[in-house]
Design brief:
By secondary structure, this protein is mostly helical. It has helices at 2-9, 13-28, 56-77, 82-114, 116-125, 127-145, 152-170, and strands at residues 33-36, 39-43, 49-53.
Length: 171
Amino acid sequence: LFRSLLENTTVFWFPRVTTELCVSTLQSLGLPVTLNGVTVTLTSLLGYDIVTKVDSRCAGSDSLAIFLAIFGLMIIDRKPQNKLLIGLLIFGVIGTYLQNFVRLLLLFAAGYYYGADALWTVHDYASYVLFPVWFLGFSVIYLRYARKPENSAIERKTSAKSRSEERRVGK
């Protein structure tokens, strides 16, 4: 439901902006790529054109939905101060967008150098590497600024355990 809602609200502008930025970057690197709406045509070194359409899912709405869901769970477990929370959220959304942008650049580069099969292989699997690496880095930063809420039940259990160990040692 959440992914669907995010996808529907970004269906028009998100893939268009992402595709424009991606194609502009690839063209500045000298790759023979053109754009028509959200349809990308790339001429590979193997001598044929690869035509792909970048929809909202390919542009990163799934990664963004996953990030926001995990971020919400992290807030429940360890909540940073409100000022930091907004900053971390903005940093996380931008970082998630950029890791997906890198994925698009990599998949088009793979298509350019190695053909359509390589493009689709990178398309299918790159997120399984890039997103966890990005999120691990984000998590390290997040945990530096977040605090674990106190849990008096654990503290009571720990102190009761310490007292019983002291009694055994004292015998």
